């Protein structure tokens, strides 16, 4: 796409409130070269739109991209996006007065490796970025030269007179009406196709956000499940070791019992040999030997029984602990869905260090970028946080939200019912006055009379 001499390149900067700055492309190049710095954008990532404007102040192409600024207000020296090339190769976008524009954004990028540096415009009524661009360019605050639309006169030699008998031909009138109807139908189809294009663009951006949130939650759940499985494997290994030690102790007890039995048999043989020499000595030796053996066996048996009992208790405790851990695992697996939706402070800090920006949308305040240190205050009272951003009280902001969602009179009638008279919507919380903006003229005058009396 060749840039015609009457086509002008402009760059517009967006913040939460809309367009905050505009400049011609040569000024933008000077800023990129470090000649000019923007202290109001210092240490921020700005949303920027590159547009091509014709001589009638109509937008013909738009590229929505990000631009980072350093702490001294200078633009990122590593930024390098071919804006003109993207505008030339972009797909069709909405009609902003001169036919469908060429549009390059995150969900419609002709060059895949530049997609991560682009952003999708907001199509919400009242916050539509395309409408903001169109209206700001129409204001012509950049001082662009405007081409006046002049009708060209037809030379007299090219004028021809039709035959008189065809002046009032009904067929010609029907053909003109038919062509007008076909032209109107074609325009309606083009408008419907453009509206469908805008809705598909918005749906694509929402789908990308949803898929990113699902992937993040799945990764978190997988990490937590892996941690739990490792803990269960460790406990099961310890339980297996305890069982193996118990088996070894029982085997040792059996071996020692067998050894005692062999010793007893040997001593019995010795006792019988002694009996042959002396029955009295043999009786005494037998009694003494039997007593000693019984004492030793009883002591050994008691000691090993005590050890076995201890091991049995430990084994039972391990079995009970294993059962309890299994129940905990099942409970934790049930809570994975809840944990996937609720992230702790550590996860917030980790996401913040990775460059994730926490944003929330509130009427009147727009998309708010919430700092990590403000997350607790925002979670405690989002309404108060949004009211502070709008520089109004929480009560005024809450009344304004009710008025913004349902712009009708809130005064009560004599029957006790609400008036519900339709009112003009006040778009800004700062311009909203309780008792004035949310009441119709009749109830507003009654409030003034009561106040005056």
Automatic annotation (TrEMBL):
Tell me the superkingdom of the source. Bacteria
State the coiled-coil residue ranges: 218-277
Q: Does the keyword Coiled coil apply?
A: yes
Arranged from A to Z, the UniProt key words for this protein are: Coiled coil
| Name of the featured protein | Chromosome partitioning protein ParA
């Amino acid at each position: 796409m060749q840039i015609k001499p009457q086509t002008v390149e402009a760059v517009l900067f967006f913040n939460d409130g809309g367009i905050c700055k505009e400049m011609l492309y040569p000024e933008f190049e000077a800023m990129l070269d470090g000649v000019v710095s923007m202290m109001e954008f210092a240490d921020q990532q700005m949303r920027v739109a590159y547009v091509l404007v014709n001589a009638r102040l109509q937008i013909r192409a738009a590229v929505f991209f990000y631009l980072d600024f350093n702490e001294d207000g200078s633009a990122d020296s590593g930024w390098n996006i071919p804006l003109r090339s993207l505008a030339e190769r972009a797909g069709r976008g909405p009609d902003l007065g001169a036919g469908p524009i060429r549009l390059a954004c995150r969900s419609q990028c002709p060059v895949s490796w530049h997609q991560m540096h682009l952003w999708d415009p907001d199509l919400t009524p009242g916050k539509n970025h395309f409408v903001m661009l169109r209206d700001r360019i129409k204001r012509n605050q950049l001082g662009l030269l405007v081409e006046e639309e002049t009708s060209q006169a037809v030379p007299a030699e090219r004028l021809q007179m039709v035959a008189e008998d065809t002046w009032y031909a009904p067929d010609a009138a029907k053909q003109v009406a038919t062509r007008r109807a076909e032209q109107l139908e074609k325009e309606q189809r083009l408008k419907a196709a453009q509206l469908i294009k805008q809705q598909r663009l918005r749906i694509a951006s929402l789908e990308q956000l949803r898929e990113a949130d699902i992937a993040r939650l799945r990764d978190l759940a997988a990490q937590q499940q892996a941690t739990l499985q490792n803990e269960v494997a460790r406990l099961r290994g310890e339980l297996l070791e305890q069982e193996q030690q118990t088996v070894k102790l029982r085997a040792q007890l059996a071996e020692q019992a067998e050894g005692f039995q062999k010793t007893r048999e040997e001593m019995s043989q010795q006792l019988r040999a002694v009996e042959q020499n002396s029955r009295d000595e043999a009786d005494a030796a037998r009694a003494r030997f039997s007593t000693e053996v019984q004492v030793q066996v009883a002591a050994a048996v008691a000691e090993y029984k005590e050890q076995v009992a201890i091991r049995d208790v430990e084994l039972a405790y391990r079995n009970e602990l294993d059962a309890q851990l299994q129940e905990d695992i099942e409970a934790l697996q049930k809570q994975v869905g809840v944990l996937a939706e609720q992230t702790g402070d550590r996860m917030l800090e980790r996401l913040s260090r990775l460059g994730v920006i926490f944003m929330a949308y509130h009427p009147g305040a727009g998309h708010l970028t919430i700092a990590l240190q403000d997350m607790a205050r925002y979670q405690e009272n989002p309404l108060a946080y949004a009211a502070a951003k709008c520089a109004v009280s929480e009560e005024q902001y809450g009344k304004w939200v009710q008025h913004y969602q349902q712009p009708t009179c809130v005064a009560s009638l004599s029957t006790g019912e609400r008036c519900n008279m339709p009112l003009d919507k006040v778009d800004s919380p700062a311009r909203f006055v309780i008792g004035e903006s949310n009441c119709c003229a009749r109830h507003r005058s009654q409030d003034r009379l009561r106040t005056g009396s």
